[in-house]
Design a protein that fits this description.
By secondary structure, this protein is an alpha+beta fold. Helices cover about 30% and strands about 20% of the residues. It is built from 5 helices and 5 strands; from the N terminus they run αβαβββααβα. Helix 2 packs across helix 3. The protein is globular.
């Protein structure tokens, strides 16, 4: 069982989704699976397609590098006070998957992206789950 499965049954579906609470961060400098240096870079194309898929409901931004070059196209899902997620092995067509994951995240009552219902690319492509700073401060 994954930690993401520990939420109460139906919790994500019953929570009102605050879509503005989630930010999708896409690595705009990522290259495609062939390593092509063509411009626009595959990461920029992914960012543009993610913005289109968001229909303006979810904040989408780009950064110059997420440092996940071995896993190619990468993105992160962030929500204040919650775990952050980094995904790799995405394609330029993964924008709708990132938005679907962001919507699940926004509706989550426990601050985790539910495993059930998560697009396959976000299941296979999970690179890291980073705890919120509040948890780390409690440990110290």
């Amino acid at each position: 069982m994954k930690a993401d499965d520990i939420s109460p049954e139906g919790a994500a579906a019953s929570a009102p989704a605050d879509l503005s609470a989630v930010t999708v961060v896409v690595c705009g400098t990522c290259r495609d699976e062939t390593g092509s240096d063509a411009h626009p870079r595959a990461g920029t194309i992914l960012a543009d397609r993610t913005k289109l898929a968001s229909e303006g409901d979810i904040r989408v931004t780009t950064v110059d590098c997420l440092g996940n070059c071995r896993r190619r196209l990468s993105a992160a899902l962030l929500r204040d006070g919650c775990w952050s997620y980094v995904f790799g092995d995405l394609t330029a067509e993964s924008g709708p998957d990132l938005i679907a994951g962001a919507k699940l995240f926004a509706g989550s009552t426990d601050g985790l992206i539910p495993w059930r219902g998560r697009p396959d690319s976000l299941k296979r492509g999970l690179v890291a789950r980073i705890p919120p700073l509040g948890i780390l401060k409690d440990i110290a």
